What we know:
- The protein is α+β, with helices and mostly antiparallel strands and 346 residues long.
- Helix content is 59%, strand content 8%.
- Helix 2 (46-111) runs antiparallel to helix 5 (142-197) and helix 8 packs across helix 9.
Amino acid sequence: MGTHRRPRQRATGGSRARAAATITLAGAATATGLGGTGHADPQPTAAQVRAKVDKLYQEAEVATEKYNGAKEKADAAERRLEELRDEAARKEDRLNSARQALGSVAAAQYRSGGLDPALQLALSSDPDRYLDGAAFVERAGSRQQAEVGRVRQELREIERLRGAARVEVSSLTSRRAELKRHRETVTGKLESARRLLSRLTAEERADVGDRTSRSAPGPRESPSASAQAPNSRAAAAVAYAYQKLGSPYVWGATGPNAFDCSGLIQAAYRAAGISLPRTTYAQIGAGRRVPRSQLQPGDLVFFYSGISHVGLYVGNGQMIHAPNPSAPVRVAPVDEMPFAGATRVV
């Protein structure tokens, strides 16, 4: 039996060796481009790069609006914290004045030969605890009791303000962490877009920005846009937007020299004397909703299902908006992006 098995083992080994050599040679031929077609991924076309860049810009804009919203809340928390600290400082001043007044009374009583236990409050290292004693209330005179009552109230108010400040500090810390996350998302998306655009020729890169305004009129072609607005404030907002044509897109910017999409809208209506929320998803609720068929100059037009982009309608199917980092503030057709709704602010 052994004499029959050994030849078969040698044949199998030889077969495996030949198969391995064949695979190795085939792999070498593929790797060098010989004897077959290589499997390297083909370079994306300019159209595919543009589509991917557009998607990255849209995702960055979603993150930008989240950043804007978080920043608005962080700023509000910071203002509230400062207000609480200022109020606590004022109350501490009043507390010190009240304690000094009680201390004067205590000193006078001491000089006259006795110190009312009630007035020991002024000398106590823990006045709030001292105030809780029932004996204090029984011994304090009515006038002194009223003064000490005010001190007690100030102490409690200060403690309440300190507690509220601790809550605001926690909120602010959370908001700042959220800001950091959104900032990293935005910068990551924009960096990916930049790397993709670097693969294109200068002409192709220009086309990424220019194609959003191919059918849009220039600023000198709409002299009556403000006159067509339904009221003076809408007209003022439209006029401001025209003045900002050519300004660069900078995420998180609200002017006067650079804007993101919602920042441009906020600045335009701020120039008209109207305060709008900072984000697209808040701006859409800032006025009366109007159908697309009834748009008038000065209306806000919103795009995409997540309400992540906004422009200012200027008439004739056109808007002024801040598109993305590859394109400045410009006039563009309303129908170039998926329409999500419109709002009339005034």
